[in-house]
Structures are given as C-alpha cells and as structure tokens.
Amino acid sequence: MLMRTDPFRELDRLTQQFLGSPGTPGTWSRPTPMPLDAYRVGDEYVVAFDLPGVATEAIELDVERNVLTVKAERRPPDVGGDNVEMQVAERPLGVFSRQLFLGDTLDADGIKADYEAGVLTLRIPIAEKAKPRKIAIGTADQHKQINA
Fold this sequence. Notes:
Elements: E1 2-3, H1 9-19, E2 36-41, E3 44-50, E4 59-64, E5 67-74, E6 94-101, E7 112-116, E8 119-125, H2 140-147
C-alpha cells in the first residue's frame, strides 16, 4: 500500500499555532490531515484514523481510481445558548481530510469501515490476484504427452 505523504504537514502545524486552527473565521483554511496508523494483519491492511469529537454523520469515505479519501468535519459544540462565553478553545474545528493511494494489490471494493470511540478503522483486503500461490512444476515428459 502506498500512502500519500504531506510535505507541508509541519508547516501546517506551525501556521496553525500562529494563525489559528482551520475553520476559524478569518484564519487559514487549508484542510488538516488527520493522524493515522496503518499496518498489515494477515490478508488485509488496517488503517486507523484519530477523529475524536467527530460525529459519524460528519465522516465521508470515497474511493476513486484507487485513491481513498477520508473527509471529516469537527463542528463547534452546542453548549446551549447565547450566554456561553468560551474560556479556552484549543481543539481544532473544521474540515480534516486525508488521501491514501491504494496499490493494485488491494481490493478497493472490499473495504470495511467501523467507527468507535473516536477512531475510524478501515480494513482493506488484499486482492486475490496479489496473494502468494504455489505453481506446480511439470517435467518435459508431461509436456510431450500434452502436445501429442
């Protein structure tokens, strides 16, 4: 599996520190990649994205031409009214996205997704054509018999 790296990730982090988080009115609006872990277990890849505080309805998964796009939006909490005065707001709000390039050895049609405790877990099976297989070795005598 080939994953897209974001060479601007550290620049994004520094910019967020100085200008504010994405989605904040009047500040920088580049979508922020979400942290992930990816590993292989048997005949599938598992990818886990950290999305704490994101509602299931605010997560979108799309696959197009072997590119998997995960998009999520963390909205401000509904704290109940106009009399609320926010004291500390450090959790980033807005749209977060990440793209993974799926190699030809993966079965994009068989992806399964679960979301629990703020973690989106994708299970991507390895395509049958990419799995190792044994090849029988024949002898020259067998080939002569087949061609005769």
